[in-house]
């Protein structure tokens, strides 16, 4: 099990030894600066050569990331020189004079001000990006995470680009904040994946991805507001993909969550119909049991008051407009309207399938009373159906 993530004090990226090793020849000024990015990538893989398996090295060559003759370990002398240079750079940047151990690749708690380009990188073992602040784009295109990958509490200010990346072990994005597009297109997640408590300000892209059965979306926040129609259309497709992925995994609770988001995005450019609004506000698109139940209770109370008001009105007519109600009650012994009778009438209409209406209304019931009863029965029937739908959706098993 992963350990609890500690709170980090935010430090500049250029004080972290692992970050400096990943951008040894400098920070690319733009994603198009391929030459520096390529040099950095080769340096990283040569530095990590002894930590990689034969299969991992072969994968780099097979994918054309490096030529075979270039992918070789540093000599002992080169390692000593790199260690000295790294210590000097860290000290110059105001950091501690430390050299990374042979254990975890740990970039936690740093602030990266420029574009972070790690595409086609291999991370051969446990890697931490916990609580990192990416102020610009983060590019992990086609990278390989062979060990536990931690991105807990990370913040992506611009695009988080993981397209074609592969997670072979636990991928932990718990509490991550995506302030722009999160692109996980064609990403296979091969082990436990955690997006719980994460926050997406735009619909994340998972087209073509393979989700692991043990994927956690609990308490994840999603935003679904777009000013441009094209963005709403794109969002609808993204939610639809996630809905289908959850359906394949038989995670019906999450499937309903993404279905609701899909419906909401669709109305942003198609408009909202009456049926849409009713379905949303009465039952949250079939996800809620409590919401239609509370509506049913509210309808019961409302019609209870209506029936009692009608009885009271009839009572006032029967005693005469010139006599006070309480005077009529005490002097003429005329019974006041029954609160319990009104409640019983409303209750019977709330559960129409019981079939007790004939015992409540009687032959003397007015036409208006019957019409109001029919209206309540129709409303209650819809709400009972939505309660049943919510129960089915929550507990169904395919």
Blueprint (SSEs and pairs):
Blueprint lengths: L10 E2 L4 H6 L11 H14 L6 H9 L13 H17 L12 E2 L3 E3 L3 E2 L4 E2 L3 E2 L4 E2 L3 E2 L4 E2 L3 E2 L4 E2 L3 E2 L4 E2 L3 E2 L4 E2 L3 E2 L9 E2 L4 E2 L14 E2 L4 E2 L6 H20 L3 H19 L3 H10 L6 H30 L5 H7 L7 H12 L6 H5 L5 H29 L3
Parallel strand pairs: 1-3, 2-6, 3-7, 4-8, 5-9, 6-10, 7-11, 8-12, 9-13, 10-14, 11-15, 12-16, 14-17, 15-18, 17-19, 18-20
Helix pairs in contact: 5-6, 8-10, 8-12, 10-12
How helix-rich are the residues, as a percent range? 40-55%
Assembly type of the chains comes to single chain
Distance between the termini: 30 Å
| Radius of gyration from the alpha-carbon trace, in angstroms | 32 Å
Structural class per helix/strand content?
Answer: alpha/beta
% residues in beta strands: 5-15%
Strand order of the largest sheet: 1-3-7-11-15-18-20
Structurally, the number of domains stands at 2
Question: What's the pLDDT, averaged over the residues?
Answer: 85
Shape: elongated
Number of helices: 12
- Number-wise, the strands total 20
* Largest sheet geometry: 7 strands, parallel
Spans with pLDDT under 50 lasting ≥5 residues? 325-334
Overall description:
The protein is an alpha/beta fold and 398 residues long. The protein has twelve helices and 20 strands. It folds into two domains: 11-200, no CATH class; 290-395, no CATH class. Helix 8 packs antiparallel against helix 12 and helix 10 (339-350) crosses helix 12. It is elongated.
């Amino acid at each position: 099990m992963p350990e609890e993530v500690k709170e980090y004090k935010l430090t500049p990226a250029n004080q972290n030894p692992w970050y400096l090793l990943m951008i040894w020849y400098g920070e690319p000024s733009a994603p198009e600066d391929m030459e520096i990015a390529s040099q950095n990538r080769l340096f990283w893989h040569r530095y990590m050569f002894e930590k990689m398996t034969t299969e991992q090295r072969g994968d780099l060559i097979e994918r054309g990331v490096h030529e075979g003759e270039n992918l070789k370990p540093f000599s002992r002398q080169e390692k000593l020189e790199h260690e000295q240079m790294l210590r000097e750079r860290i000290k110059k940047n105001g950091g501690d004079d430390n050299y990374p151990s042979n254990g975890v690749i740990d970039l936690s708690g740093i602030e990266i001000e420029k574009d972070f380009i790690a595409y086609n990188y291999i991370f051969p073992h446990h890697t931490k990006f916990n609580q990192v602040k990416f102020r610009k784009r983060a590019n992990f295109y086609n990278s390989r995470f062979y060990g536990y990958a931690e991105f807990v509490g990370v913040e992506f200010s611009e695009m988080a680009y993981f397209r074609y990346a592969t997670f072979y072990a636990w991928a932990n994005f718990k509490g991550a904040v995506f302030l722009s597009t999160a692109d996980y297109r064609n990403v296979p997640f091969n082990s436990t994946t955690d997006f719980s408590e994460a926050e997406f300000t735009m619909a994340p892209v998972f087209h073509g991805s393979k989700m692991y059965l043990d994927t956690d979306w609990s308490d994840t926040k999603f935003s679904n507001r777009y000013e441009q129609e094209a963005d709403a259309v794109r969002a609808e497709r993204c939610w639809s993909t996630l809905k289908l992925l959850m359906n394949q995994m038989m995670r019906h609770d999450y499937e309903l969550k993404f279905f609701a988001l899909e419906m909401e995005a669709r109305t942003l450019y198609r408009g909202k119909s009456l049926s849409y609004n009713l379905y949303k506000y009465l039952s949250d698109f079939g996800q809620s049991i409590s919401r239609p139940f509370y509506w049913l209770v509210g309808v019961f109370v409302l019609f209870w008051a209506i029936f009692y008001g009608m009885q009271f009105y009839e009572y006032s007519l029967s005693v005469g407009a010139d006599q006070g109600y309480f005077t009529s009650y005490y002097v003429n012994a005329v019974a006041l309207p029954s609160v319990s009778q009104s409640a019983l009438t409303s209750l019977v209409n709330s559960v129409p399938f019981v079939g007790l209406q004939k015992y409540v209304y009687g032959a003397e019931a007015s036409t208006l009373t019957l019409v109001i009863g029919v209206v309540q029965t129709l409303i209650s029937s819809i709400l009972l159906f939505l309660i049943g739908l919510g129960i089915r959706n929550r507990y169904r098993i395919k």
